[in-house]
């Protein structure tokens, strides 16, 4: 699959007036990526905190910094990227995962040993373990996973490969 970048086009280019980032949109020249996730955009109340907390998690999962601008940052792994932005258009400064909308993001986290180390390190990077007393089987006896929540209330599920 060949990818090329289109700078400054589509809804990403004009979403925030005065935004100093010229978002790049990855466009596939064939249908190999049809149905896969293109990107996720998280609106966060504190971009500096998001850079610390999400940046650590995503780097640990193999993502690298893709774009950065005054009010946001994105990380990319393959054709998928994740954006954190402190948008002036936010209607609230709080995320509540138990309300209608996004509850959590789930990622493959490598082996069970990888996940155990990940969970231990996460405490030093702003993440708190949920259901700690049931770790690693809070999702069931055949599901080796950790559930973490960050300072802004975003939940992350990390799933180990069997």
Automatic annotation (TrEMBL):
- Tell me the InterPro entries matching this sequence: Fosfomycin_Res_Enzymes (IPR051332), Glyas_Bleomycin-R_OHBP_Dase (IPR029068), VOC_core (IPR037523)
Matching entries from Pfam families are given as: Glyoxalase_4
Q: Which residues form the VOC domain?
A: 36-161
User: What name is this protein filed under?
Assistant: Glyoxalase
């Amino acid at each position: 699959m060949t990818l090329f970048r289109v700078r400054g086009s589509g809804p990403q280019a004009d979403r925030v007036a005065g935004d100093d980032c010229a978002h790049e949109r990855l466009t596939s020249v064939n249908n190999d990526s049809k149905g896969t996730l293109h990107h996720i955009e998280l609106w966060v109340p504190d971009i500096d905190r998001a850079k610390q907390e999400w940046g650590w998690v995503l780097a640990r999962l193999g993502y690298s910094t893709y774009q950065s601008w005054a009010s946001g940052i994105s990380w990319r792994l393959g054709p998928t990227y994740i954006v954190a932005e402190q948008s002036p258009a936010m209607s609230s400064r709080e995320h509540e995962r138990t309300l209608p909308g996004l509850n959590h993001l789930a990622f493959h986290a490598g082996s069970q040993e990888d996940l155990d180390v990940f969970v231990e390190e996460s405490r030093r990077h702003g993440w708190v373990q949920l259901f700690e007393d049931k770790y690693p089987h809070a999702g069931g006896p055949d599901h080796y996973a950790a559930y973490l929540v960050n300072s802004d209330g975003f939940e992350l599920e990390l799933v180990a490969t069997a």
